[in-house]
Write a structure and sequence with these properties.
- The protein has 13 helices and 11 strands.
- The strands form 3 sheets. Strands 1, 2, 3, 8, 9, 10 and 11 form a 7-stranded antiparallel sheet that branches.
- Helix 4 packs antiparallel against helix 5.
- The longest helix has 25 residues.
- It is globular and about 80 Å long.
Length: 429
């Protein structure tokens, strides 16, 4: 649950009060970033009461306070939203200017399914040589969910693996690429670091493939950040635009062709790139970017169904809607630049630390009194003249706690807008 701006200021006040009362004590720490829990049961259905709402580590709303919503927000002067959009979370943004044109539950932390592979590509493409050859293993053959068909002993160039990763959403390919990058653990650490650098604080990677694990998440906002970054890199864009590729012959296994599952590449003019995803817990997810008339949009949809409207068709309709929003319309938020939020958080942390150290130093300084040195008041003041600060500080702290409790209760009653789910196909990819 994100703390509202006023509550964040009250908590900051409580930190100062705590320093006054206990000069040598540590400042209050923010809640740690969510993590995955591999020991918990694997999710098999969407969050029953809607997903958690994400935020930056300091509790602020990445991209602007208007994106602090579980409902729908649209730019001023935008046309009516298209019919048939059943995705529980979605976002439309101008990838060029960063302006967010419309969204529903933009920071909802949904299960991402294979759209998380966009983050895998963004993380590993800069560090793996495309010419490096990776050998298939038994583990690749046995991986759960969708597979391209890697075979033990097969020799696969990283370049081909990147294309198979996004085209056919191969979980076996994600496993092989992670192994080439030093293992699943280091790969996940790098993916989470990449997400943080982008400002994608709703995203927690628990598998390089997007297969569900408790605690793993992303959001419509974060998927837009990731794809926006991918399409600016010529190599990654080339990978995402690949229509077909040829898997090699391995022993008795003949080679075969694979095709890109993002059908908008051939059916929607100007489509640059996209990534599909599906699991029973995530339902259907999709993120896509398109460029028309010198305007580049990115659209993400999460927890969508295929009936009555296919998730790719929902994205198509949102693209049409986004291109129809007047240029220069007042945005509801913006996509942050890489490193922007991290720099702001670091600067704020430094300022808070300096303020805390200054306050502690002032509290530890010898008391000054106007009484004469031989006055009984002066003698008493050397040990008791700071005592009035204690009840005052306690009273201030109590007021902060009461205010925080009231605001927290108001925020806690916010729920995801009710939605009637549509039936979807079994299985996962």
């Amino acid at each position: 649950m994100r703390r509202p701006l006023l509550l964040r200021r009250l908590v900051a006040g409580l930190v100062v009060a705590g320093v006054l009362l206990t000069p040598a004590g540590p400042a209050l720490a923010e809640s740690p970033r969510p993590t995955v829990d591999p020991s918990a049961p694997t999710p098999t259905a969407p969050h029953p009461d809607g997903p958690p709402q994400g935020s930056a580590p300091d509790g602020s709303t990445v991209g602007g306070e208007r994106l602090d919503t579980r409902g729908v927000v649209t730019a001023a002067g935008a046309p009516p939203l298209p019919e048939g959009i059943d995705a529980h979370g979605w976002l439309v943004a101008d990838a060029g200017t960063g302006a967010v044109l419309g969204a529903r539950d933009p920071h909802g932390r949904y299960y991402p399914a294979s759209t998380l592979k966009a983050l895998t590509l963004l993380t590993l493409a800069p560090v793996l040589d495309p010419a490096l050859v990776v050998e298939g293993t038994v583990e690749d053959e046995a991986v759960e969910g969708s597979r391209v068909g890697l075979v033990r002993g097969g020799q696969y160039p990283v370049d081909l693996l990147f294309r198979a990763l996004v085209m056919q959403s191969g979980n076996d390919v994600a496993n092989a690429l992670a192994r080439a990058a030093g293992g699943v653990g280091p790969t996940l650490a790098a993916m989470n670091e990449t997400a943080a650098q982008l400002g994608a604080y709703d995203t927690v990677a628990g598998t390089p493939s997007g297969l569900d694990v408790a605690g793993q998440s992303s959001s419509p906002y974060d998927l837009a950040l990731v794809l926006r970054q991918l399409v600016t890199d010529p190599y990654s864009l080339d990978v995402l635009q690949t229509r077909t590729a040829q898997m090699p012959t391995v022993g008795a296994y003949e080679g075969y062709q694979i095709q890109n599952q993002n059908t908008l590449l051939s059916s929607y003019p100007g489509t640059l790139a996209g990534k599909t995803g599906f699991t029973d817990a995530a339902r259907h997810t999709f993120v896509v970017a398109a460029d028309l008339a010198d305007r580049r949009l990115v659209v993400s949809v999460m927890q969508a169904e295929r009936r009555p409207v296919h998730e790719l068709e929902q994205a198509r309709r949102l693209l049409d809607w986004g291109f129809a929003v007047p240029a220069g319309a007042e945005a509801v938020g913006r996509l942050v630049e890489p490193g922007e939020v991290a720099a702001q958080l670091a600067a704020a942390e430094t300022a808070e630390q300096m303020a805390a150290e200054k306050t502690a130093a002032q509290a530890a300084a010898p008391a000054v009194t106007a009484a004469a040195p031989d006055s009984p008041v002066a003698a008493a003041g050397s040990t008791t003249d700071t005592a009035p600060l204690v009840p005052a500080g306690l009273a201030a702290g109590a007021l902060v706690i009461v205010a925080a409790t009231v605001l927290g209760r108001r925020r806690a009653v916010r729920r995801v807008a009710p939605h009637e789910p549509s039936p979807g196909p079994p299985g996962g990819r």
